[in-house]
Amino acid sequence: MTPTLVRRQRPSPSPSRSRARDWAEIQERMLVPLYEAVYERLEVDAAARLLSLGCGSGLALLMAAARGARVSGVDTDERRLDLARERLAAHPAAATARLGTAPEDVADPDGPPFTLVTAFDPLYCADGTARDMAAALARAAARARRGAPVVLAGWGPPERCAASGALRVAARLADPMSTAAHWRPNGRDDLEDLARLAGLRPDGSGRVACPYGYADLASAVRGLLSTGAFDAAARTTDQEQVSKELTEAVHPYLRGDGTVWMPNVFRYLIARVC
């Protein structure tokens, strides 16, 4: 890799107002194989009442609604939620979707409890710790029926995830004394430990290939930045430095036609509400 190539393809820092749209238009679709595998395994249909933690801009909700499920979603990013509202409102199957920033916002006090809770985005609560994530799961589980599945997702083995190199950039540049962006559910038993911490009972798991494919190097960096995994690093250094080092980390996956292909494996755990 030559410095000239890096300078030519390095994207300018993504303005915060465009980050949610970068997520919706570039990054969110990378997890579609995970959504499909879980919905197929759990036979999601019209009987399902789904609560999605970290629902992003609503793609997973839309896919569940297309199967007939009644869907609700929460996310801490209001800009992503605005995009989710636009996306879901355009489809009759998702017209009854409820969206908010916490499970309390979307639970129907007069309706039946949720029958399925998902936490597909392994970076949901990225600025917190495992205990923060467990607390969010416990709050959601309290609004689900007993025995309902709660699906947690995380990275597979680092050696099988091309994105691991990019995430190491985030960890290295972030303040080492900060908890933000350092906890990631990628260890062998991390998801099981998280489920037990939330008071849930592990009950099966699976792995899904979720390759990250991008039109070009600039799109790859924009997509990865939109996850929020690099926010702590940007606060400690600056956005330009993060973009530069992220570009270098992604560059080995640049193909001859200018596209970027990063093979990844995600692991999911099915736990049960006790």
From TrEMBL:
It comes from Streptomyces thioluteus. InterPro entries: Methyltransf_12, SAM-dependent_MTases_sf. Residues 51-148 form the Methyltransferase type domain. Residues 1-21 are annotated as: Disordered. Gene3D superfamilies: Vaccinia Virus protein VP39. This is Methyltransferase type 12 domain-containing protein. It comes from the Bacteria.
